[in-house]
Amino acid sequence: MKKYFTIILTCLLTNVNSFNPLSKTKLNTFNQKGEKSLIFYTAAFNKIPNDVYSDLIDKFCDDELKIVVPSDVKNNKFINKFDNVTIIGHSSGCVNAIEASENKNVNKIILIDPIDNRFFNDEDYEDYVDICVDQALLLYTKKSYEWNFLSFPFVPDKLSLKPDQIKINDNGNKEVIEISKYGHCDILDRHWADFANKFVTKGHKNRFNINKYHKWLSMLTAKFVNDDFENFESEKINEFMEEDYK
């Protein structure tokens, strides 16, 4: 049953493109030499339109992050136009993000619930990935991987790209955060996140917390992008997610 609703959700989200001509366009992309940029690869192999993440993207823009949501994962040459790039990926879009990070202008990566979908194209793939970046931030929503007597985990263990499978440059810094009370789809806009919570995969019990979660993700991302992540623990930003992560 869960698989059935997962397919429906993916089809619905992907088909947003069919009636919104602005989907998958560049957003807030003006980039001067030396500025930092964020390139975001969405779920379902980067096929989920940016509209479904509009609240999070608005939060990114509020935090003055220069953001691009690419429409083509086969050609990442557009990254050459930007400096100081941080790549962010969600779900199965994380492999697309990892591939994009091969560009020399990329120095950081953020992966949210990374799903390893390489088996679709490569039967002999290694069980780890090498990423040529100096800094990596790995976020895992605990509810995505939980078992209970009513359901299986939304992200099967075999498909989860775990921290010890992700290798970065020697002497690089890899941060891992488990977000204890949220689920895989809580990153989406509230109505999509609520739909997923009801039919596909459980998220936070208090559905009014979703916008707070998006703000937390944006503030955390801004800290990471702007080389201020070491101050994350000590600043008031933690009040947004007080007991929601560890």
Q: How would you portray this structure in words?
A:
The protein contains six helices and eight strands. Helix 1 packs antiparallel against helix 5. The strands form two sheets. Strands 2-1-3-4-6-8 form a six-stranded parallel β-sheet, with helices on both faces. Strands 5-7 form a two-stranded parallel sheet. The chain starts with a helix and ends in a 21-residue tail after the last helix. By secondary structure, it is an alpha/beta fold.
Summary, kept brief:
The chain is 24% helix and 16% strand.
Task: Give keywords.
8 strands, two-stranded parallel sheet, 6 helices, 16% strand, 246 residues, disordered N terminus, 6-stranded parallel beta sheet, alpha/beta
What layout of secondary structure does this protein have?
Blueprint: H1 2-14, E1 37-41, H2 43-46, H3 54-62, E2 66-68, E3 85-90, H4 93-100, E4 106-112, E5 129-130, E6 135-141, E7 166-167, E8 173-179, H5 190-199, H6 210-225
Parallel strand pairs: 1-2, 1-3, 3-4, 4-6, 5-7, 6-8
Helix pairs in contact: 1-5, 3-6
Strand order of the largest sheet: 2-1-3-4-6-8
Q: Would you tell me the structural class of the helices and strands?
A: alpha/beta
- Tell me the major beta sheet: 6 strands, parallel
Rough outline: globular
**What is the helix/strand order?**
HEHHEEHEEEEEHH
Strand content: 15-25%
